[in-house]
Design brief:
Length: about 1000
């Protein structure tokens, strides 16, 4: 059953969110995990109940979602289609092939992924090199609207087509059917595409990949998953031939192995007819081949049982990675088993997740209170039809990893010894019910892309889909079964299994070995010491008022959509737009102060630390834990980031919680709390993660590029671990206390709420604040980088065959030229397409080179057109030559209309689709309560991004790309001549 992704519940596809939260390697994400069966196998493998039910519900008593229409073509292809208007006029199509890396033979490793590339290269109705341009002409941007992914057990082709009409729909299905059923698999295509795949493999290498591979090899030892990665091996890819790839395609690309899900603003009957017309005649010679056996986890007979895990300890491994923080991951594995996705099964899954939520809450509480670990989390998922796994991930706070491991194991052991308290269960149930209720409230605005993905992911894990109200009813119906003893039974089952395996990453080999880790896993722990104490849940009704409520003294229409601006009696400005475009959702943003303009060179180091810690420090008498308890069963948030000229607090809430959300934000400014622990924890997290930037060229770019593009502005320099150690909680308070207390405030509320109630809530919260003093911004520290000289050369400590290169041309900045900035974006996209063709298609030197336009709206200069690519070190000079050649050509020769259309049509469609959501308007109009000119600037956005001329593009290219003065950055392997470890 599919459930909305709001809480850590692994029902249906939601396991992805849980594992992302765990920080586990991508190999374990359900996007790379499947338990599907072809339609031909469904009757044999699935428990057959009510055979007249739609195919996805056979074997289940889950009520079918009436919004979907399910069907099967005569050739065995299964489909699901539904009408959806979010966004309007869009069609989202997913084609899932039951073939991934686990289906490959030993000499075919990487073929499932290579075939995905070749499918996009040339097919029945698309000649060599036509696929991407043709989809762009139809308004679909390559990489976002047109994409594919290959995992251990599936290949999924994804297509989101905007602005559809009958002619475009027919063309989309014709082209897509040709790609799937009849790709042109030529020897020339294989020779051209293998270097691109190898570039992708190279660019994904480094420390993170080594950890992912070591984890997979350790946890799934003895199973096929341990030695199969979708990218393949260089040896098998280099040996790929047309005939071998064709054989793989014929074996697995069959209608019986295919599921197509479609959601969009089209009559489902039309979609069914299109499927029949374009896929109904698909036939493949030969009999379907059954999926290979993926194996089961097994333990050696002499393995010993560990306390806190009801499974014998098997393989343990130490991985030395000098630039990564210490991490301990262990997994309790059980054989994967096919189940019937019934209501009873989902009730059991909910009990599993409730047990994990109680345990994770305890682990987080101990970390906040000063445990020996920085972070720890537990999760469960079924992985690649290979194992049912409970994962534990621990990041030790110091070198004393044994203490961190013992602390976490003690907390788990306590949960295995004693049932949870009633108040713990009630809290998690309230969180679950709130999340599922929100799913019902917002069901009318589910995105077509998400709906289409849901079907694929449900098939992938052999489960059903359910309407949001069904999900909520299942939870409510099982409440009598949720007892402390039931939760205890499920907790114990989660930590019982065939074998426990562990991997630890350490920066130095002297810090641990396999024997030490095994001993630590088997050592006894004091479970009693880990028991949590009951704490009462606070209530908003118990919180003190922020002051005497103010009044709205001025209100007026903005002249755009239905937006209005308000001024409160204390000077706070507000921008409100009550609309039902996203039913059940309210977006709140609060802007205050001067953003990065509040920091000088001396206080710059506290910017990042404050951004990470400030919201976790609580308000008034309430610390972080109390705020979490206060929010139980509510939709409240405390997002925070620093922008160029303001600080931004943000949250997604709903009308019923709007006033309390406003109270939290206002209280952060009026009654800030200065707890030390959140600062120390944030400082530790930043310090532990800093060395990891050096493990790859991309990491170095993430660390230093913005700093360099801003002329070495100290506010954008990442603090080293040693520099962070010198920062203190008192120092942070000294910097941030005046920031929170001064500067103008504006509140932005867009969404589904009652206007009168929102205005009253504003008067009682932000209107109750004292008038704030204005604080002028400090002198601007960002300047243009030096151009025209040799490249800045930095070093990374990753693989020796990895490098990256960046080249940039200064443009401009400022809101007064916002329309010009949008035309510059078109120029950058033209540049991007040419660079993509040159570096990927012609040279095979880079998997995904890219060009972007940066035009700071809140600075008068500093914009750049920036091109970058990951490469082999030897190809860096070729990248600079190619980029400069393209820049010169754009300046010398106006691009053709057809080339411009490849860019402007996707941009037009992107703006049109985005404009249906409140997030788009908040992004475009943020700050307009104090700067009404922004209302006018947004009116021309669609035209500015979608209309231009060859002459305009050439003029801009001459102006910004024509003088040859560039900024260059090369990131090379450590030890190469001229490479520096840090941008000083």
């Amino acid at each position: 059953m599919i459930h909305p992704p709001f809480v850590p519940v692994r029902i249906g596809q939601f396991g992805a969110t849980l594992l992302i939260a765990l920080g586990l390697p991508a190999i374990f994400l359900p996007a790379a995990a499947a338990q599907p069966a072809p339609a031909a196998e469904a009757a044999r493998d699935w428990p057959q109940v009510e055979l007249d039910r739609p195919w996805i519900y056979r074997g289940s008593d889950v009520p079918p979602d009436p919004e979907w229409r399910f069907g099967e073509l005569a050739n065995g292809l299964r489909y699901a289609v539904r009408f959806n208007e979010v966004p309007q006029d869009q069609l989202s199509i997913r084609v899932r092939i039951d073939a991934g890396s686990l289906h490959e033979r030993d000499d075919e490793q990487g073929y499932a992924h290579l075939l995905e590339h070749l499918t996009f290269r040339q097919s029945k109705y698309l000649a060599e090199g036509e696929t991407i341009p043709r989809w762009e002409q139809l308004g679909a941007t390559f990489g976002s609207d047109t994409n594919a992914e290959t995992t251990p057990t599936q290949t999924v082709y994804k297509l989101d087509v905007p602005d559809v009409d009958s002619a475009k729909i027919a063309e989309v299905f014709r082209l897509l059917s040709g790609m799937i059923t009849a790709p042109t698999l030529s020897q020339e295509g294989v020779r051209a595409e293998v270097p691109i795949v190898l570039a992708e493999k190279r660019e994904r290498g480094g420390a993170a990949l080594r950890v992912a591979e070591a984890t997979r090899q350790t946890f799934f030892a003895g199973q096929k998953l341990a030695v199969r990665a979708p990218i393949g091996t260089e040896e098998t890819l280099q040996a790929a031939t047309r005939d071998k790839v064709r054989a793989f395609h014929q074996r697995w690309y069959r209608p019986q192995n295919t599921v197509i899900s479609i959601a969009g603003d089209v009559d489902p009957a039309v979609l069914e007819q299109m499927l029949e017309t374009h896929f109904g005649g698909w036939k493949v010679r030969g009999k379907p081949v059954r999926a290979p056996d993926f194996g089961k986890p097994a333990a050696s007979p002499d393995a010993l049982m560990a306390q806190g895990a009801l499974a014998p300890v098997g393989e343990v491994r130490i991985l030395v990675e000098p630039d990564l923080p210490r991490n301990i991951s262990y997994a309790v594995l059980r054989p994967w088993q096919q189940v019937a996705d019934t209501i009873a099964y989902n009730e059991a899954l909910l009990l599993d997740q409730l047990a994990l939520s109680v345990l994770n809450r305890r682990l987080e509480a101990r970390a906040r209170a000063g445990a020996d670990y920085l972070a720890a989390q537990v999760g469960q998922d079924d992985i690649n039809r290979s194992a049912d796994v409970t994962f534990v991930s621990i990041t030790p706070l110091t070198e004393d990893w044994q203490a961190a491991l013992a602390d976490v194991r003690a907390t788990i052991a306590a949960a295995l010894d004693n049932p949870p308290r009633d108040d713990e269960i009630a809290r998690e149930l309230a969180e679950f019910e709130n999340a599922f209720a929100i799913g019902v409230e917002t069901s009318a605005v589910q995105q077509a892309t998400d709906l289409a993905n849901n079907i694929v992911e449900a098939v992938d894990i052999r489960e059903t889909v359910a309407a949001p109200d069904t999900v909520l009813n299942v939870l409510r119906g099982m409440r009598p079964k949720v007892t402390p003893d039931a939760v205890l039974r499920h907790t114990r089952a989660l930590f019982a299994g065939t074998v426990l395996r562990a991997l630890m990453t350490v920066p130095q080999a002297s810090q641990a070995d396999a024997a030490t880790l095994r001993t630590a896993m088997l050592a006894p722990v004091d479970a009693a010491a880990a028991n949590a104490e009951a704490k009462p849940l606070p209530s908003f009704a118990d919180l003190p008022p922020l002051g005497k409520p103010g009044k709205v003294v001025e209100a007026g229409a903005a002249g755009l959509l239905g937006i209005e601006t308000l001024t409160l009696s204390n000077g706070v400005r507000a921008m409100l737009w009550a609309n039902d475009a996203e039913a059940g959702r309210v977006s709140v943003r609060v802007r205050f102060g001067n953003g990065y303009g509040a920091f000088d060179a001396d206080s710059a180091a506290y910017a990042d630390l404050g951004e990470a810690a400030i919201m976790g420090m609580g308000i008034g008498d309430l610390g972080q834990d109390a705020l979490d308890r206060l929010a139980t069963g509510r939709k409240l948030g405390l997002g925070f980031r620093i922008e160029e000229n303001s600080f931004l607090m943000s949250a997604e809430t709903r009308a019923a919680d709007l006033e309390d959300q406003l109270y939290l934000f206002a209280a952060k400014l009026v009654q800030p709390r200065w707890d030390e622990n959140p600062v120390l924890r944030a400082r530790a997290a930043l310090g532990l993660s800093y060395p990891a930037f050096a493990t790859s060229p991309q990491g170095v770019i993430e660390r230093d590029l913005e700093y360099l593009l801003r002329g070495r502005d100290p506010r954008f320099q990442r603090s080293t671990t040693a520099q962070l150690d010198a920062l203190t909680p008192q120092g942070l308070q000294n910097v941030w206390e005046p920031i929170l207390a001064s500067g103008p405030v504006s509140v932005e509320i867009f969404g589904d709420f009652d206007r009168a109630q929102a205005m009253a809530a504003l008067e009682r919260t932000f209107g109750a604040m004292d008038k704030r003093s204005s604080t002028p911004a400090l002198p601007q520290l960002s300047v243009l980088p030096v151009t025209g000289g040799p490249p800045v050369v930095l070093a990374h400590r990753g693989d020796a065959n990895q490098a990256a290169a960046v080249i940039g041309w200064p443009t401009g900045g400022g809101r007064e030229q916002i329309r010009l900035s949008r035309q510059v974006e078109i120029l950058a996209q033209l540049f991007n397409n040419r660079l993509f063709d040159a570096m990927r298609e012609r040279l095979g030197a880079s998997y995904a080179p890219g060009v972007r336009a940066q035009w700071p709206l809140d600075r008068e200069e500093g914009g750049m057109i920036v091109a970058m690519a990951q490469l082999q070190p030897k190809d860096v000079p070729a990248f600079y030559e190619e980029a400069e050649r393209i820049a010169a050509d754009l300046a010398q020769t106006a691009p053709a209309e057809i080339e411009i259309a490849r860019v402007t049509e996707p941009l037009r469609q992107l703006v049109s689709r985005s404009a249906s959501g409140n997030g788009f308007w908040l992004n475009q109009l943020g700050g307009a309560a104090r700067d009404p000119a922004r209302f006018e600037q947004v009116r021309s956005i669609l035209t500015d991004y979608s209309r231009t001329t060859p002459e305009m593009m050439q003029t801009l290219a001459r102006r910004f790309l024509g003088d040859g003065k560039t900024f260059k950055l090369s990131v090379l392997p450590q030890g190469q001549s001229g490479a520096s470890d840090v941008a000083g």
